[in-house]
Structures
1.
Amino acid sequence: MTDASRERVLELTGVSKRWPSGTLALDGVDLAVDRGELLAVIGESGSGKSTLLRLVHRMTEPTTGTLRLDGASLHAEPPVALRRRIGYVSQHGGLLPHWSVLRNVTLVPRLLGWDVERRRRRAAELLTLVGLPVEEYGGRFPRQLSGGQRQRVAFARAFAAEPRLVLLDEPFGALDALTRVELRRELRRLHRRLGATALLVTHDLAEAMELGDRVAVMRRGRLEQVSTPDELIARPATDYVERLLELLPGGTGR
Amino acid sequence: MIHGAHGDARPPAAPGRAVAHRAKSRHGGDPASGSPGRSRTARLVGLALLVLLLAVRPATAQPIVVGSKNFEESRLLAEMFARLLEERAGLEVERRFNLAGTQVCFEALRTGAIDLYPEYTGTGLVSLLGEPATADATTALNRVRRVFLERWDLWWLAPLGFENAYELAVRGPVARELELATISDLARRSAGLSAGLGFEFIERPDGLPGLAEAYGLTFAAVRPLQQALKYEAAAAGRIDVLDVYTTDGRLLREDLVVLEDDRGFFPSYQAAVLARGNLLREHPEVGPTLALLAGSLDEEAMRGFNLRLQEGGESPEHVAADALTAIGLVAAAPETVAAEGAGPGFWAFLWSERATLGRRTVEHLRLVAVALGLGLLVAVPLGLALERRRAVAEPVIRAVGVTQTIPSIALLAFMIPLLGVGALPAVVALWIYSLFPILRNTYTGVRDADAEAVESATALGMSPRQVLLWVRLPLAAPVILAGVRTAAVLTVGTATLAAFIGAGGLGEPIVTGLQLADSRLILSGALPAAALAILVDLLLAVVERRLTPAGLR
């Protein structure tokens, strides 16, 4: 991922976030995500990884530092417009329970003013891609789906409007082990297929190693190391990373 | 007499006010039927508006409004006034009977909510002017005439010829055993006797306090009792002494000895018409017409008429017609007045009253609908606004919650100086009651709406307004509707009290029935009101189901 032709989608420079309570959640973070890349941020709870993600779609604002999307400051446009260009999947999917699957998936295209035909075509395409054909599932409500199916719909929704970047906040955290494995595979397929750029936040190292083109290890608001999974194993930069890797079950990942 | 016992009519217990959170029913529903959140909201608002529109009354020409207090004689006299004005002067009359006591009636008159009502000179002097009572009839009349005219442009017309003053009566056996004939006799033996006295009598300076001082009376026990119940209590031997009114019909029936007021303590209470000066100037025929009644009734005749109302179960309309015919002022009513006697059974009675009942039900529903509609229009937007300013939400909601602790009857009475009597003050009072359940549920419903759905909707680029209208509001709809149901049931119940301030509705037979201790009459209002509450609740349950988004059912 370090060739010269890379194109920066997201770039964070010297980003810090201090809560009003005085806690320093992020401490001078520099990070870049390239086009087509899936960057996995791994860390314990409280490490600042979720805060990092929330800064990107401006659900919260940094104390210092700059964030750029496609070279332009995030603050160049109103947050609502910014968010429509960034996909998002939360732990339980965050589907609107009173909206059908189809309606959920077409949400962002609708906000962007796509015409009905285009919205439907795109939703059908994505729902097929996640294995939930629109004819069968489009009219269902989230309650009528299993946890795994709901999460698939959430993926379809996040990718529907061809976002510049997709933010994935522990998207497998609430699933059982089997479904989790299945869905990881699916996410990878989706990501490759759509050539999307994604930022994944997780506390599961195996998941980060399996999915991430690069892995960023966070601890107490700082980045310990950012590198490819292979490099991480070969050359852990700190004691913390080393100890972390010892927890990895043998043979996981690549 | 006195009339006007606020305390005599006790509000029925208010229904529970807990905020109801209803469990959502969970059957699947047609997956394809999910319609957009926007139209759900629109339907909710539409429903509220529809309810309001239905409730709006077309304006009509201004009739003369005759009021009465909430006891038989006052209603009878008021009905006589009304009928006389209709039949002899051809005027259009609106009846606002059963107003809760002297203060309510007087405020209504002073503020122009009613044009005239029957009042007693002693009440005017003592209760309304706060002056010392006088036992001299002429002095009392002249005094109130002058002061009312100067102060409020109110006119005392046509003293009707009888007095209805307070008297003390003693159970026959006791009076005979102790040889009591005067209040002075009683004062010597009263320490061993128990008294059942009206609420107002116990408080008024010209009632028990003054009497006790003038005669040195002390009782073994004093029980506050509603007028009609005093007679039952005496008949059952539970009390020995009671305050009675001169013209009470039950004096003709019961074994009671009325004691002579040998020290001339009780003031004079001549019955007369009390009317607004404006009315007399705008309708010059009113004064002379009502003057036809001057001196036409005596105590004996009034006792007879009152007895027919109290025990015969006859309506004031019938008895008033008879009275006017007897005086020779109005020709005999074309319809034969059937004596109802002890009357048919309850269900037959209810059936015979169905037309009146229907009209009262409509009045009742109208009060409830307008109050609830206004409640929705205010409480829902307020709840939504508070959700965005959570720091002030709890204090504001708690403040609104305080309104629930005001006794309904007190709130209704409080409206009178501000808004007069009739439907308007009742609607305002009911509206105030409806606010809290709707506000509380709107706020909690919107605040507690599926947090992750709300967060995701925001994160995907919905504007705050879209989040509110498309997500929070539809998700909160079942909880808000549960609040509306609570408010509706509460309002249907409380609206029965609106009859105390002349708003009509199903409370009217309850108020009258309480005065007469006539359980048949009370039930004829209470049962339909209860049925109505259940019906409204069921109806709103259906609305709630329909407004619950398909995905949540």
2.
Amino acid sequence: MMNATGNNHSGVSLQVRGLRKSFDGQEVLKGIDFEVKPGEIFVIMGPSGSGKSVLLKHLIGLEPPDAGEILINGESIQSPEIAAKYRMALVFQSGALLNSLTVGENVGLYLTEHRLKPPEEITRIVAEKLEDVGLKDATDKMPGDLSGGMKKRAAIARALVIEPQLILYDEPTSELDPLSAVVIGEEILDLNRRIHVTTLVVSHDRELAFGIADRIAFINDGRILKIGTPDEVKRFDDPLIRKFLNADFKRETKS
Amino acid sequence: MFENIGEIVLLFWRTLLALPFAWRQRQKVFDQFFEIGNASLLMVCILSFFIGAVIALQTGPVLVERSLSSAVGGVVGIAIAKELAPVMMAILIAGRIGSAMAAEIGSMRVYQEIDALRTMNINPVHYLVLPRVVAIAVALPMLVVFAILVGWFGGAVVAEMNNNISIPIQAFFSDLRDIVKPKDVANGVFKSFCFALIIGVVSCHQGLVTIGGPRGIGRSVTKAVVNSIVLIVMSDYLLTRILLK
């Protein structure tokens, strides 16, 4: 696979310091600190309801924090120029494709709305990005006609069009069969290698995390418990992390 | 409703600021315009014909009985042009189009499509609100002009056919022309323009603040329609008072 526009990009650094957020008096993020280096694949793991998706919304500027700061290359995400200066993309858990547009229109939406390229060029880029994610025949389909995995791949193609310097994935393999999950994981890795995009993945998929991450952070109850490389994580003795990593069905077999 | 008035006014202001981008969004404006016209034209015809007919039926016999038959055309003409066509059409459009706007934007909000737009640095006011408000602000006054003409025709038909009135169509329109001035029609059309802004902004605002799942969308649709109608009726009095001067 080739980068459709042939451009190389270097990722940005991401720093989160003392991030706090409450909804209706309930504190969801209780002081989050971590740093992601440029070009790194950083996976945040944790049980459902631990604050992962809320954290992601803060990282892309969709939610303002109550306290703390988020810095992209040292500049606050809240500053008005940040969106024009750095290209960032979020791949939503549901895909969040616009249901009134075709897949092709969805993928080209960023370029069309910001009038960054002439229409023929946009058509070419959309076709290339969709081919990159294995959806070249889906250009004229409506999002409602796609399966869950195809929607996610289309959402990744839409993010690729932005040529992001920071890409965030929200549960990229949830609701996917194991084969599709592997394809998505490879896609994340491949994209990171090709354009050195800083990648942050929020997931509770253990296979994905250990398969793609440079570093893994564990979040629970709105706090980061530990951060380490996959090898270090395997050696963590925190009981909650051990329980999370070793959780499995236990069924007694009749002899 | 009133706790959101500040947010609604703010959204209206943002939409005004976005007006220079309306040309860029012309395809969406045209799509919405077609949607409003296509969805409502038949209903507008039926509704306004019968409104004209019933006004003639209610006022005609009373006026004829008092030897004021020459006033029937004028009464029906004024009532339709200045009041009934703008208000009734606005209520119809609030129900048909305002509800659709709130439902569409509300579902986009619930299913994170609006968040997706924001992550792509696409302003939801430019992309979603502006085309809808511009389209309805153009379409509703045009529908009201149409409704006034059909309403007058409905009144004229009943005035001729009803035995208690029996005013020929030519006489009805001749009387109407004597009393109804172009300014009266312009008043009605201007009011409908203001109502269109109310429906567009209130419905889009309600869509944008939707929370929850399908139930939240349903709630938003109901609130959009009810709030639009309440504001239409209230502003109708205010506008009528101002335009009387």
